[in-house]
Write a structure and sequence with these properties.
single chain; 300 residues; alpha+beta; three-stranded antiparallel beta sheet; 9 strands
């Protein structure tokens, strides 16, 4: 069994069956199971497996990618809640970008041209004439919803950007209680505005972005260390999930596997030799009896 490291001694490859890498390759008899389970966080120095420093922890290596995806997810959720709109009376009004522009225009008409008839409609309803007060109330409630969620999202985003632990970022949910500092700022900025807001699950699997040692690989390596070297070892490809830079991640190579000899079966029999008739003379039809049997195109 061999391992390969990078120039900083970090283990980047485990080779169960194969050849020793020319650069940074080491032949080893075995890998302790506790090391194997966390091998992405180990170095190989002077013949010893050494746990990497805490700041090199694999999970936190991916914190910026996970932070970026979490920020995007929170932004998408905020936008979806705003687009979902508001209830006014017994009717519902969506607030997508077009709806917001229309309401802004109608609000201006209601304020500055109160005698102008205003036509609008609720979701799924036909157009009707709205009073100035109705339009102003709908617009004010819509602006309140936009302000409320935009402000909350802004404070949540600031909180996420300050987090230094990847698990804290993964566990963030839209609608969760903010920390004391950001919660105080949120309440001060939205004083007098209140909308119901529940925690919303973020269903993205952030753990899939973090390399992990595959349990099947662990079982294969542990089994191979107890096998005779002449036994055939079938090695599964891939030591880890490879999320960002597959070329730099550890993997199990399957080159130069020992191949078992072919054994015929009923499904795949060995072809029996077939007796072929000797070539014959074109004119006489008699078989040739000498070694000067003409080839194709040479018949006399």
């Amino acid at each position: 069994m061999f391992i390969r490291t990078n120039d900083d001694h970090k283990i980047v490859e485990v080779i169960i069956v194969g050849v020793k890498p020319k650069k940074n390759g080491y032949e080893i008899d075995s890998i302790p199971e506790d090391v194997l389970k966390d091998i992405l966080n180990y170095k190989y120095i002077d013949g010893q497996f050494v746990k990497s420093n805490e700041e090199e922890n694999t999970r936190n290596k991916y914190i910026e990618q996970i932070r970026a995806m979490k920020l995007q997810a929170m932004s998408d959720t905020c936008g979806a809640l705003i687009n979902a709109g508001i209830d006014y009376g017994d009717e519902h009004y969506s607030l997508n970008t077009t709806d917001q522009i229309n309401l802004m225009k109608l609000e201006s008409v209601a304020r500055f041209s109160p005698n102008t008839p205003i036509l609008y409609h609720a979701d799924g309803k036909e157009c009707r004439v709205y009073s100035n007060d109705e339009i102003l109330n709908i617009a004010n409630r819509g602006i309140g919803l936009i302000t409320y969620h935009t402000t909350y999202h802004n404070q949540l985003k600031a909180m996420i950007k300050k987090m230094t632990n990847v698990d804290d970022i993964i566990n963030v949910k839209y609608g969760m209680k903010l920390d004391d500092v950001h919660d105080a700022q949120f309440k001060a900025l939205t004083s007098g505005i209140e909308f119901p807001m529940d925690e919303i699950e973020d269903t993205f699997d952030y753990e899939s972005l973090i390399p992990k040692v595959d349990q099947d690989m662990i079982d294969t390596v542990m089994k191979s260390m107890n096998k005779d070297t002449d036994d055939t070892i079938k090695v599964p490809m891939g030591i880890i999930n490879e999320p960002w830079k597959p070329s730099t991640q550890p993997f199990v190579r399957e080159d130069e596997l020992i191949i078992e000899p072919y054994e015929p079966s009923d499904d795949f029999p060995i072809d029996e030799p077939v007796d072929e008739e000797p070539p014959t003379d074109v004119e006489s039809g008699e078989p040739y009896e000498n070694e000067d049997t003409p080839t194709d195109g040479e018949a006399e």
